[in-house]
Design a protein that fits this description.
Blueprint lengths: L4 H22 L2 H6 L10 E8 L5 E8 L5 E9 L7 H17 L8 E8 L12 H22 L4 E3 L1 H7 L10 H15 L16 H24 L1 H22 L3 H6 L20 H38 L1
Parallel strand pairs: 1-4, 4-5
Antiparallel strand pairs: 1-2, 2-3
Helix pairs in contact: 1-8, 1-10, 3-4, 5-7, 6-7, 7-10
Length: about 325
């Protein structure tokens, strides 16, 4: 019986999915996610910066994480970048604030994992709100801050799509209503669940800059979610999954008789019209098989990431409520 390309692709994906599920089930995921074996010595704390860069107002939130579900807000404020005349002075004001927060860190540098997430200015672009000149200024400011964060924290900042960031933590924007108002209300509610109401009081949302603070909180929170995903993308976990299933994954594709291009394009098996025999395909190379495994694994982790984000928000809420 000749299997279709769809069946071959589905079977290979199932092999990787089962191996990933088995590894996650046997590795005590939450412990692994926080104390990544790639770090030596083990980390005491993770800091997550969320930066919502603006040419007028820049929101900055710093979250401190000492375990998977123990998160606290260290800083939530804005830099009034509109008060500074040029790009360099605007960037300098933002970076001075970041440096001050880093210097105030009580832990030793070797025991701290710094994470920086920045809202992507282009992905959040709305033509009605920005002129071409304003967008250029914002892009320049964004680039300076990102480069400086690499030098300051020795880490590559993560670009955060504002729309997907809201969706990741369960915030659904209602059309026709003010977006900033919806964001501030949601962050205020989430803060209450997380015992962070001292940082986001009942008056939160009344100040015009509170929307920028709320956006930076969501960006910082997404940094936590991204760090969970990054552990599964590490060579440590990916290599374990690969060792469990790659041989079966490889053999399944070779036995099908398809070449890699046919599988990727999803074409059905071609038959020789004259003698009814299966058309012969070029055997996939080891490099092609490895590349296909990597892309399959990445897609599965991305799907897991979306489900994990929603589950994480629910769990952190319930744990904080139980502590009250």
């Amino acid at each position: 019986m000749v299997r279709t390309v769809t069946a071959v692709a589905r079977n290979s994906t199932t092999l990787v999915r089962k191996a990933l599920q088995n590894v996650l089930a046997s590795s005590q995921l939450n412990s692994l996610l926080y104390r990544d074996k790639a770090f030596s010595p083990p980390l005491d704390v993770r800091y997550h910066f969320g930066i919502d860069i603006g040419s007028r107002v820049t929101g900055i939130t710093l979250l401190r994480q000492t375990s998977n579900f123990n998160v606290e807000t260290i800083h939530s404020d804005v830099v009034l970048t509109k008060n500074y005349p040029c790009i360099i002075s605007k960037a300098d004001a933002i970076l001075q604030q970041l440096q001050t927060l880093k210097n105030d860190c009580p832990e030793k540098e070797t025991c701290v994992d710094w994470n920086v997430a920045i809202e992507d200015c282009l992905l959040g672009f709305q033509s009605a709100r920005f002129s071409t000149k304003g967008l250029v200024i914002l892009a320049q400011l964004n680039g300076i801050v990102k480069y400086s964060c690499v030098k300051m924290f020795n880490v590559q900042p993560v670009n955060i799509n504002p729309r997907s960031a809201r969706s990741m933590i369960g915030l659904k924007i209602t059309k026709g209503k003010d977006v900033k108002e919806q964001v501030t209300q949601y962050v205020r509610t989430l803060a209450l669940h997380m015992n962070l109401d001292h940082m986001y009081s009942s008056s939160f949302g009344k100040d015009p800059t509170d929307g920028d603070r709320a956006d930076s909180f969501i960006v910082a929170f997404n940094s936590i979610l991204a760090s969970r995903k990054n552990v599964l993308m590490s060579e440590n976990i990916k290599g374990t999954v690969k060792s469990c299933c790659f041989e079966n994954f490889r053999q399944s594709i070779l036995d099908s008789g398809y070449n890699m291009k046919t599988i990727l394009e999803g074409k059905q098996m071609e038959l020789d019209s004259q003698n009814g025999k299966q058309k012969r395909y070029k055997r996939p190379s080891e490099a092609e098989l490895t590349q296909y495994f990597d892309s399959t694994y990445d897609k599965l982790v991305q799907g897991w990431h979306k489900k994990d984000a929603k589950a994480y928000v629910v769990q952190i809420k319930s744990l904080k409520q139980a502590e009250k």
